[in-house]
Design a protein that fits this description.
The chain is an all-beta fold and 250 residues long. It has no helices and 23 strands. The strands form 4 sheets. The protein has an 8-stranded mixed sheet, with no helix packed on it. The chain has a 7-stranded antiparallel sheet with strand order 3-4-5-12-7-10-13, with no helix packed on it. It is globular and about 45 Å long. Pfam families: Pirin (PF02678), Pirin_C_2 (PF17954).
Length: 250
């Protein structure tokens, strides 16, 4: 991990760099998981969270295997499938399958139980599991899932999550905005933060990027705060990035 001041879009900002090979790693046979922040048996005092972003797990679940029914409360839980089909069931009566292009959000609130399984017997399922601290506690549990048009993220940032039910993407109880972009080589764009005081955590899904003067490779993470705008440039073809704008104060 690298904590340092960097020049992002011409202004001095604060940043933290998490290279892919420095993440926590757990191999349970049926589940292989990489933890950007402390989770389960991986505990690192310097990696507890980035603002209200508490968990960023990069999971691979074997054929037909999965997480049995287990509880959550007072957390906003977002699942982003990257490959394969993930079957979801919960105590609110929802039974569904999420796949690449889908976004799932749950407000655990006063408490829910859910399970997640690889629906297929012949391929892995890969997905990101993200936990966000809510800005309201003990809300009524809720579930939200949508399917997005993957073409809408080609050379632009597609909004997949926000605090507003009427906006594009799913919504959660927090002043957070998520975007995914898939860019051609040498394509550049800028992202302007939506709320003063928020920070942004970039996670590289595929390929290579430069943000400001920082080079990032696949599965690297970069947190930036005390800035209003960041410039993003793809350094490879079909490079894909997830941007998570979140409040920095818990």
């Amino acid at each position: 991990m690298e904590n340092t001041d960097k020049i992002i879009e011409g202004t001095i900002t604060h940043s933290v760099l998490h290279k892919a090979n420095t993440r926590g790693h757990a191999d349970h046979g049926w589940l292989e998981s990489y933890h950007t922040f402390s989770f389960a048996n991986y505990q690192n005092r310097e990696r507890m969270n980035f603002g209200v972003l508490r968990v960023l797990n990069d999971d691979r679940v074997s054929q037909g295997m999965g997480f049995g029914k287990h509880p959550h409360d007072n957390m906003e839980i977002i699942s982003i499938p990257l490959e394969g089909d993930l079957e979801h069931q919960d105590s609110m009566g929802n039974t569904t399958v999420i796949k690449e292009g889908d976004i799932q959000a749950m407000s655990a609130g006063t408490g829910i139980f859910h399970s997640e399984y690889n629906k297929n017997k012949d391929q892995l399922v890969k997905f990101l599991q993200i936990w966000i601290y809510p800005n309201k506690k003990n809300v009524t549990p809720r579930y939200d899932q949508i399917t997005l048009d993957l073409n809408d993220r080609h050379n632009k940032l597609q909004q997949i999550l926000s605090p507003n039910p009427e906006d594009d993407g799913v919504w959660i109880h927090q002043d957070a905005w998520f975007h995914i972009g898939k860019f051609d080589n040498d394509f550049s764009t800028s992202y302007e933060l939506k709320k003063p005081g928020n920070g942004i955590y970039a996670f590289i899904l595929k390929g290579d990027f430069t943000i400001g003067n920082i080079t990032l490779n696949e599965r690297d993470g970069l947190g930036i705060w005390d800035t209003n705008t960041i410039k993003i440039t793809a350094n490879s073809a079909n490079a894909e990035i997830l941007l998570m704008e979140v409040p920095m104060e818990l």
